[in-house]
Specification:
Order of helices and strands: H
GO biological process, one term: cellular oxidant detoxification
Shape: rod-shaped
Strand content: under 5%
Number of helices: 1
Distance between the termini: 151 Å
Organism: Actinidia rufa
Structural class: mainly alpha
Protein name: Response to low sulfur 3
Pfam families: LSU
Length: about 120
């Protein structure tokens, strides 16, 4: 026996007759959704503006950071130069003191002792 296929005719979709009350409910719901959409779009616009302000503050902060880093580098270079100059001066004074001590020792050694 051969298989059989049943064909079902689709029924046309019928909406139940809508009453004035149903239409009023749908109209109010539509108005509510439109108000929510408007509020949502306003919030989105505010968030975009806030993001733009934040982005600008970030840009200003990054520029300030770059300037501070440059200034810090210049100050570090100046500090190194000052430390080198101080060290050179310190070593020069130590040499002078050492030479003076040697002179004093040599002169006290050449003086006759009075014992």
């Amino acid at each position: 026996m051969a298989p059989t296929i049943a064909v079902v005719q689709p029924q046309p979709h019928r909406q139940p007759p809508s009453s004035a009350a149903d239409e009023e409910v749908l109209r109010r719901r539509n108005e509510e959704l439109e108000r929510e959409l408007k509020k949502s779009l306003e919030r989105e616009d505010k968030m975009k503006q806030e993001l733009q302000r934040t982005w600008e503050r970030l840009r200003v902060a990054e520029e300030a950071e770059e300037r501070l880093c440059t200034q810090l580098g210049e100050l570090e270079a100046e500090a190194v130069d000052q430390a080198r100059a101080y060290r050179a001066r310190f070593l020069g004074l130590m040499d002078q003191l050492s030479a003076a001590q040697k002179l004093l020792q040599a002169s006290s050694a050449s003086l006759p002792s009075s014992q």
